[in-house]
Amino acid sequence: MLLIKKKKETVKSTLLSHNNTKKDFVTVKKTDWFIDKDDIVRNGQRHPYHLVDPSPWAFVASVGALGLTFGGVMFMHNYSGGWSLFCIGFLTILYTMYVWWRDIVREGTFEGQHTSAVQQGLRQGVLLFIVSEIMFFFAFFWAFFDASIKPSAMLGGVWSPDGLETLSPWGVPLLNTVILLSSGATVTWAHHGIVAGAKKSSQIALVLTIILAIIFTALQVFEYLNAPFGISDGVYGSTFFMATGFHGFHVFIGTCFLSICLIRLGLNHYTRNHHFGFEAAAWYWHFVDGAGVKHVTCRLI
Q1: 214 contacts 186 by C-beta, under 8 angstroms
Q2: Alpha carbon distance 295, 247 (integer Å)
Q3: Is 0.70 surpassed by the pTM of this model?
Q4: pLDDT by residue (tens digit) across 52-70?
Q5: Rounded CA separation 299/267 (Å)
Q6: Architecture (CATH level 2) of domain 153-300
Q7: Cβ contacts of residue 87 below 8 Å, gap of 6+?
Q8: How, if at all, do strands 22-29 and 2-7 pair?
């Protein structure tokens, strides 16, 4: 039971136990609009924030990243043990990703630590992450337009470079764009299904999204295998394979993200009002869609 008494700038809430004895006081500012009564009652604390328990995973991830980087450099310079160190670092990062996100799922789903205030912070973090990804791809688009709008004499003064056979954007690239946009529609369908409480409909939509993502990846591999040029064929080849390659990698990460969401949906981890894990995956997937459209637009130009 929760009693609320308003006075000037604060709201004083008294938490009562089952035998109606006074337990604690919570003072909440009116400006903290994101704090709701359920957060206070559920956690039984003086604030709605999650004080994270000590965790070793940040340190373990740093060690894995260090091994991955050093191993990669050693391997590329033909030092002995470089490949082994690279694999150890890579596997360490994969393991850390699993156990760290496992802890986050447990905290948010079973411990109730992801209150409204915590979810607000998570949303801001994911949005900032997506903005950083946009700037990452912006660098590749900048390189492409810088080379294509004013082609140098080394390229023959024309774009695409003189003597270089390119892929038609009206074939596989256009088909892949349609597939990506269709997957964006199905993931939105899945989101609306979760909000409406239609679990079966959401599962069908998520399965369709994952199938479309796999088809996209397979077509991109087919396009790479049949490309008449390579990454070393001047600025056209380097910008093409770097931009589309990283985009394909992001599609793969998004596919893994949505697959985990499908598993969690089957385990009833999501409710109509508490499904931020899926929201983050959907936002990321829409970013991937937008990047795909920009890629095919550049190739049409």
Answers
A1: no
A2: 9
A3: yes
A4: 888 999 999 999 999 999 9
A5: 42
A6: Up-down Bundle (1.20)
A7: 71
A8: unpaired
